[in-house]
Amino acid sequence: MDGGNCSVVSEFVFLGLSNLWGIQLLLFLLSSVFYMASVMGNLLIVFSVTADSNLHSPMYFLLANLSFLDLGVCSVAAPKMIYDLFRKHKTISFGGCIAQIFFIHAIGGTEMVLLMAMAFDRYLAICRPLHYLTIMSPRVCAIIPATAWILGLIHSVVQVAFVVHLPFCGPNVLNSFYCDLPQLIKLACTETNGLEFMVTANSGLISVGSFLVLVVSYIFILVTVWKHSAGLSKALSTLSAHVTVVVLFFGPLIFFYTWPFPSSNLDKFLALFDAILTPFLNPVIYSLRNKEMKAAMWKLCYQLLGYRKMP
Ligand SMILES: *[C@@H]1O[C@H](CO)[C@@H](O)[C@H](O)[C@H]1NC(C)=O
């Protein structure tokens, strides 16, 4: 345990999700399918929104930004996890591990800010329709994603700064399939109680805080919609899509960072949700119930197949 004469850890070993061949095969098939579907679905949204001038409005720009982030979310941990599934010795270099933490927090933090911006956008559209276009001007629309990225990056840099100088000198096995802070910190050969508290306070408070802000905003919007009851069903279907995405995204996160009794096996399978399932579900939830989005996607598909106009 003394930091002076111990060998320095240069790589970490993942225990992975399972050692049973049947489960590995099942996970391999499911993860590959969901990963491919996430990538295709989110690419389709980004390109449809960019290509179709009917969708050049703040709501769709924000949605395209969310899809762009989801491409990142599903590519940070999932490809390596899939590649590792059948390997006996699943390793990741120290740098790779820090990179995963950096991207997970940068993209996750950005996504939280963006989800709040999307809630604000719906609030304006539903509760302040007359002021909507003046407030969500093109300038504001460009500032929102930029702000989200800056805040996400700041959050991530702070998190990485906590761990990058920790001494790792002995144990290097992570009961997980990707690197993240709560587990990595436990491997450091130094006293880390204070650090664990910082991480829980930082990531935990941010997730719980943004989740509460989002829940309160959506309740507020729902109540407003209810009182005026005009366009109720359309508003409800849009809002329920947003609320579903928010719950799916934050549920597992809040569990990792704030649940005081670590149970890595449950953690691991919940992590699969955020790693693969949520990025896959976002396009499904937002698009399948939205006529304009579906029309734009079909148009794009026809154009890709070489038709000038929809047949
Ligand atoms: C993100 O939003 C901005 C404006 O709100 C838009 O110009 C940009 O194209 C969007 N990014 C993507 C990847 O769609």
Short synopsis of the structure:
The chain is mainly alpha-helical and about 300 residues long.
Tags for this model:
transmembrane helix, mainly alpha, G-protein coupled receptor, disordered N terminus, 3-stranded mixed beta sheet, 311 residues, transmembrane, G protein-coupled receptor activity, membrane
CATH topology: Rhopdopsin 7-helix transmembrane proteins
Helix count from the secondary structure assignment = 11
Sheet with most strands: strand arrangement: 2-1-3
The largest sheet is:
3 strands, mixed
> Any idea what the CATH superfamily is called?
Rhodopsin 7-helix transmembrane proteins
Low-confidence stretches are 1-5
Quickly give the CATH architecture: Up-down Bundle
What is the rounded Rg?
A: 21 Å
Please give the CATH class.
Answer: Mainly Alpha
- Estimate the global geometry from the Cα principal axes: globular
Distance between the termini: 71 Å
Architecture overview:
By secondary structure, the chain is mainly alpha-helical. The chain has a single domain, classed as Rhopdopsin 7-helix transmembrane proteins, CATH 1.20.1070. It contains eleven helices and three strands, in the order E-H-H-H-E-H-H-H-E-H-H-H-H-H. It has helices at about 20-50, 60-75, 80-85, 95-125, 130-135, 140-165, 180-185, 195-230, 230-260, 265-290, 290-305; strands at about 10-15, 90-95, 175. It has a three-stranded mixed sheet. Helix 1 runs antiparallel to helix 2, helix 4 (about 95-125) packs antiparallel against helix 6 (about 140-165) and helix 4 packs antiparallel against helix 9. Residues about 1-5 have low confidence and may be disordered. The structure holds 2-acetamido-2-deoxy-beta-D-glucopyranose. The site of 2-acetamido-2-deoxy-beta-D-glucopyranose (NAG) has 10 residues, from helix 1, helix 2 and helix 6.
